[in-house]
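Good morning C.,

I know you're traveling, so I'll keep this short. The sequence:
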Amino acid sequence: MKKSLVYSVGLSAYLLFSTAVHAEDFILTLKNNQFFPKVLTIPAGQKIKITVKNQDATPAEFESSDLNREKVVAANSEIIIFIGPLDAGTYGYFDDFHRDTTTGTIIAK
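The tokens, ready to paste straight into the viewer:
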């Protein structure tokens, strides 16, 4: 095979593979026991990567019965959560350590 053909085939395989496993990135920030943004809008039908950044001096927990996820994020740390692909709809989440005040919503469109 010619060098350019090998390169072209290799590049095509790489692009196909990287597109198939790529998850769109979103960020949720915890500060003063609140999630920001309160409403996170994501595309329906796609795998999503959410980085949860806890800027508080106490641990928190990203929990969602709707999404079947529960993960503690230490103080001044971050975690990564993968969700989806989701059907269009509304999905709630909360910090189980501050459940009455720290809530949010994910809307898949």
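Safe travels,
E.
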